[in-house]
Amino acid sequence: MPKTAPFSSWPWENLGIFKYMLLGPLVGKVLYSRLQADDDLASNWWFHLLLITILRFHLYAWYTNFCNMLWLTRNRRIIQHSVDFDQIDKEWDWDNFIILQALIASSCICMFPHKFANLPVWETKGLVTIVVMHVLVSEPLYYWVHRFLHGNYLFTPYHSLHHSSTVPQPVTVGNTTFLEELLVTTVLGLPILGCSLSGYGSKTIIFGYVLVFDVLRCFGHSNVEIMPHWIFNRFPIFKYILYTPS
């Protein structure tokens, strides 16, 4: 992958383990806000953002651990050989995208503080809104983004890194270039931002949408097929609806 391609490398790729210091201001904001006498943890979106970020780190890590427990998954693995050390090295910084999305989400909270400050725990209209936005905006956008990334111009400098992982596993999701994750972040963020700015957002909707999005990406890259084949034989339409590793 040529390093000269614009936005192909991560801005903090030379920081090593110190990249997690980029989340320092977020942690500091949470700690500082807890010291304020009038602070309400339930409405503190700095806390919720930090919590979502931690949950996402653990989700990808534990799903990857599950996929590599051969005593559980051996008979359902799609590619039988194991992950080699070269792939482990390439995927070492798989969590870059979680840091990126936490930083972008922090910026959105700063830009629209009043829209996020008083979100209810649940809003039924928000569920309808985010499902409609996902179906009409995110899914078509993700399809075309992915299709363009497989084109002659973008594949080699940007998307080929992702496909260099020969045995997919959940952390393979993050084996990507900076530009690719900016595009994916847009796909993920538009329904959340649109739902929140329209006045129909809620804490449950935001937590649920992000984590369901992550679970589906983990599942699709898991190399462990848990969907029985008879479902597709009996209901062929499910081939176009259900997202599976196969």
Q: Structural class of the secondary elements? A: mainly alpha
Oligomer: single chain
Helix content class? 55-70%
Ends apart, CA distance between termini:
27 Å
The main β sheet shows up as: none
Q: What is the number of beta strands?
A: 0
In N-to-C order, the SSE pattern is: HHHHHHHHHHH
Report the average pLDDT across residues: 92
Polypeptide structure, described:
The chain has about 250 residues and is mostly helical. Helices cover about 60% and strands about 0% of the residues. The chain has 11 helices and no strands. The longest helix has 26 residues, at about 125-150. The chain is globular and about 55 Å long. The chain starts with about 25 loop residues before the first helix and ends in a 12-residue tail after the last helix.
Question: Features of this protein?
Answer:
246 residues; mainly alpha; 11 helices; globular
Short description:
By secondary structure, this protein is mostly helical.
Question: What is the strand and helix layout of this fold?
Answer:
Elements: H1 24-34, H2 45-67, H3 70-73, H4 85-90, H5 96-111, H6 113-117, H7 124-149, H8 155-163, H9 178-197, H10 203-220, H11 229-234
Helix pairs in contact: 1-2, 2-5, 2-10, 5-9, 7-9
